[in-house]
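Dear colleagues,

I hope this message finds you well. In preparation for our joint manuscript, I am sending the Adenine deaminase (Caldimonas brevitalea) sequence together with its predicted structure, so that both groups work from identical material. I would be grateful if you could confirm receipt.
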Amino acid sequence: MKKTFPHIPRERLPALLAAMPKAELHIHIEGSLEPELIFELAKRNGVALAYPSVEALRAAYAFTDLQSFLDIYYAGASVLLTEDDFHDMAWAYLRRAAAENVLHTEIFFDPQTHTARGVPMEAVIHGLKRAADRAGAELGVSAQLILCFLRHLSEDDALQTLEQALPLREHFIGAGLDSSERGHPPEKFARVFARCRELGLRLVAHAGEEGPPEYIWNALDVLKVERIDHGVRCLGDPALVQRLAREHIPLTVCPLSNVKLCVFDQLGAHNLGELLSAGLAATVNSDDPAYFGGYLNQNYLETFAALPLDAGHAYTLARNSFEASFADQADKARWIERLDATFEQFR
Ligand SMILES: [Zn+2]
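The corresponding structure tokens are as follows:
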């Protein structure tokens, strides 16, 4: 049953949203590359950029759809070459996460974006893993890695990538599917996801961001994913909504990303409230925060300012973020206790 907090007024929501413990389950680490760090790494590695300055690069972040964003996203990632570069990128994100009261994060990374440029798989995974371990020790933030396949490439390329990553299997907990959704349905990756399942990897996939509800069905039935990334287009299919609710399939919703990529024309038109009313395990996430106008707390703040959501919704979303994570039950219980304690403080 939904908890309510009628005594927490709307004007206290911004402080509550910032203070409440939360998890982030949909963050592409390459999408946390700020223009300043892109320029620093370009200088360190002697990579020439097509933009003369940080300001010019920032100004180019005016996307019209997923593809126009991806074009600049891959250009930004071109400065990442060494293990230290991957560490520094992830460390910058994890420090921000700690400052926003993120207790746990499951970080997506796209090895193909890097291995296709000749960067060794070891540099990618060791760099990210070093930052994740350091976050646990120095920041008290639990961080895990999820290897994602680029869906605009072939399944054979994905299979090859998986084999390359297998010597480092102990360093990542799951596999996902991202990049251009339209024209690249989940079933294109049936074999590689079957292989991931055999390996005991936890499975997620982007579906129903720009693609139709059918992609969500196939992500569940063909790929057998445990979580749907985005999934906001499920509301067009009542039978799908019933199933997602019945099976408690979490949706990792990214409100600012959805507006920036024109999935919704403004935050006030976002369907997050409807998803929660339909009993779906929705969570709030930042997706590619350097590119979409904000990290996790900014997503919460702007979304709650634009929609008729209250403290009860905030509690549900934060609690969902822990419950939808791949952490063990003891960690989840400990985090939810801290969440409850924060809401008590706001009494
Ligand atoms: Zn995403």
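For the figure legend, we might mention the following. The CA atoms of residues 93 and 276 lie 28 Å apart. The radius of gyration is 19 Å.

With kind regards,
E.M.
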